[in-house]
Amino acid sequence: MLSIVELLAPDPDRAARERLEEVLEDADWDEYTPTDALIDSLYDSETDDYNSSGLAYFDATADPGEMRDDLQQLPSCPRELAWDWYEWAEGTEWDPDHRDKFLWPLAERCNELGVAIVSVFVDGDGFTLGFLPATRLDELLKQAAAIGAQINIIRPGEPTV
User: Fold this and answer.
1) Residue 91 domain-assigned?
2) Which of the residues 16, 60, 109, 116 has the least number of beta carbons within 10 Å of its own beta carbon?
């Protein structure tokens, strides 16, 4: 689990690692899963401070502006990622069921930069997103499978979170 946290949270202060240690120490494994532990370690829900986070957590109704604003705060967000490809019309009615209309083009742009968008499964009404160099995807997926964590890769044209 630690290797996944370190892959997704390039955190020089080791805050995500410390959160993982606390989570593992306090977890009731009868009700808690490895996926839950990853989310709690990779997203600082106490402060919403993305400086030490590897994931952004979103409510199921999050619109593209919210996703962009939070994703840009992640240390792993590619600095060269441009956001001008999306029509940022204020007041436009957003249908969360059409999330793919935002995530697929975002994944396409990230792929061009050699970066993948990943999502750790959330059992509930939200979803997570983070970035990872595409060259590290196989490593991430092998490690996730080894601990039974559900991690999805956002790819254009494939069902998303």
Assistant:
1) no
2) 60
